[in-house]
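cache lookup: miss for this entity combination. No prior model stored, computing from scratch. Input as submitted by user K.M.:
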Amino acid sequence: MDELEKRRRQLADPNSHIDSLGDASIESLNETELAQLKANQAFENQLSAAFNIEVPEALPEKVLLNQRLRKRRNRLVNWSVAASMAFASLMSLHWLSRPDLPLSQHALNHVYHELELLQISDAIAPDQVLDELAKLNIHLPLLPEKVTSASICGMAGERVVHLVAEIRGQPVTLLITHLPIEKTIRFGDERFIGKMQKFARQGLIAIAEDQRLVDSLFEQIII
Amino acid sequence: MSIQDQQFESLVKSFYQPLYRYAYWKCKNRPLAEDLVQETFTRAWKNLSQLKDVKAAKPWLFTILNRENARRFERKQLPIVELSEEWQLEQIADGKDDLQKMMIRRAIFNLPDQFREPLALQIIGGLSTNEIAEVMDINQNTVSTRLFRARAELKQQLTEVPTNRGKHNG
């Protein structure tokens, strides 16, 4: 380090320079140098006093309170996010485990849409039923023992055969569709119980107010 | 209270004063300085895990404060209101201040930012030249030069004051 650099560093950081001077070094200074040193020291003290403005007394408490509030808010936000994610996951699981739900919902809606068909008690001829089935190229091993209504309807964007059978004096709806049904599923709401299953190339959806009626219908039509 | 909470509380209590003073001399506005300190500690809390060495806490906090100040300008274009120097100096004055101190403060006020900031870091923060260079992201020699020139400028202003006052007073 040359003398110029040394001098520059002293001027840039006089406090460190003053601190680094040992007693021996100070004693070796002449009067002018000593006076300069004292003047520098005084100037540094004045600078330090001028920079040291008053600090708001409550500042640390404010900072700590702010941090605690943020922490609590973050915890609340995290909890909300976690709860939302859990709810979303649960809903996804619910829907994924019931891939039939849209079709079953369509089926239930269709029954509600044509509730008046459930009031008919007179049986129609088996040929009339076979005619309706033939329109959609549908074959059943056996027909329900008593059919009170047979028609072609639209459901979930597809044409279906809509039969209403009567079992033990109670109406049971049978919807026969070409819509894909992968496995046997039971479903229902406050009023109706349903079951859908694949049979040959068609899907069968039976709906009634009692599950035993649904099962009975399937026993009647599938050997 | 968790260990992290304790560390944070210790940091706040140890450094809120130098940080506030530095923030004040940086923005020359008391409420803004307080906001800057709050934002600095908020950021510090989020990144406390980055602080591996307690000895590095001081320059680390000053660096955060500088960045928060820069973000302040990025976030929104604040309306620029020129506050009078007299008013600004009154905000930091207290009854115990002598004339000498007020004159030095006025001189510090008039220093260009590039000189005032390293000087504040050195005197308020007690940072070394090397640490100031890191905080300000500039060369160490540049820091030394600016510190030297800051002092020279202050001394120059202080020697000029009586003459100016004499002129103003007729």
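stored under new cache key. Helices of chain B lie at 3-27, 30-46, 57-75, 85-92, 99-110, 113-123, 129-136, 140-168.
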